[in-house]
Design brief:
Elements lengths: L6 E5 L4 H12 L3 E6 L4 H8 L2 E4 L5 H11 L4 E4 L22 H28 L3 E6 L12 H20 L5 E8 L9 H5 L7 H14 L5 E6 L5 E4 L8
Helix pairs in contact: 1-2, 1-7, 3-4, 4-5
Length: 245
């Protein structure tokens, strides 16, 4: 696979999975366009021969400003996301009854609004430029329950429903949309409690290989699951969405 002469926008590209995506894109000859609220993304972009724009994904105006600065991408990976509480905070604070309202509203804004606003900003520009593809980072927690963080799981379930529905709506469009659903990836948002419990983690680089393939080659509306196998590898599974025959 080659991304020669292709530009790829990555939200949350300053670190973690987003940074690994940017590195994989550059490795394949593409130009990463990193958009992040973390301005360390500027150094990542410079190192990889890409470009950077400051972007708060929850701000509609900021989306237009970022795309004005970066240009219309050939592909986009809407990857920015958070969990309900910081990694070093007890998971008890993510309980749906006792979590504070500000934390709840923040995760809804970043994980759901950030994707919806991204699609709304990108789709008209990408269609006018001839099409392309948008991949959304969902999660295995969007396919199965995550008792430790119900709000996070809810946002990822919502993204899967959004992608499948928009995919159907875009069936005749030049623009594709799909979602990658990783298990736990070894990034800064993984809670310390889950690490101590021995949760199998895949590396961001492992995740990025599959995510870039989905972006470039995946079907419209496709939901692709990726799970660490506990033996320094990953396996791919077609998710059962419980739709019956």
């Amino acid at each position: 696979m080659s991304l020669e002469n292709r530009t790829v926008l990555i939200t949350g590209g300053a670190s973690g999975l987003g940074q690994a995506m940017a590195e994989r894109i550059a490795e394949l000859g593409g130009t990463p366009l990193i958009a992040d609220v973390n301005d360390a993304g500027a150094q990542v972009a410079e190192h990889l021969g890409g470009r950077f724009a400051h972007l708060d994904v929850t701000d509609e105006r900021a989306w237009q400003d970022a795309l004005d600065a970066l240009g219309t991408p050939d592909y986009a990976h809407l990857n920015a996301g958070i969990m309900t509480v910081p990694a070093d905070e007890t998971m008890a604070h993510a309980d749906i009854v006792s979590c504070d309202l500000a934390s709840y509203r923040r995760i809804m804004a970043v994980n759901i609004d950030g994707v919806v606003l991204g699609i709304r900003a990108l789709a008209p520009r990408m269609r006018e430029a001839g099409g392309g593809a948008i991949t959304v980072t969902a999660s295995i927690a969007g396919l199965v329950p995550l008792a430790a963080d119900p709000s996070y799981s809810m946002t990822k379930h919502a993204l899967i429903g959004l992608v499948r529905s928009v995919g159907d709506a875009w069936a005749e469009s030049s623009l594709r949309i799909n979602a990658i659903c990783p298990g736990a990836v070894d990034t800064a948002i993984v809670p310390d409690e889950l690490r101590v419990a021995g949760l199998p983690l895949m590396t961001p680089a492992q995740m990025a290989v599959e995510a870039v393939d989905l972006l470039a080659n995946g079907d419209n509306g496709e939901i692709r699951a990726l799970i660490a196998d506990g033996q320094d590898g990953v396996r791919f599974e077609a998710p059962d969405l419980g739709l019956g025959a």
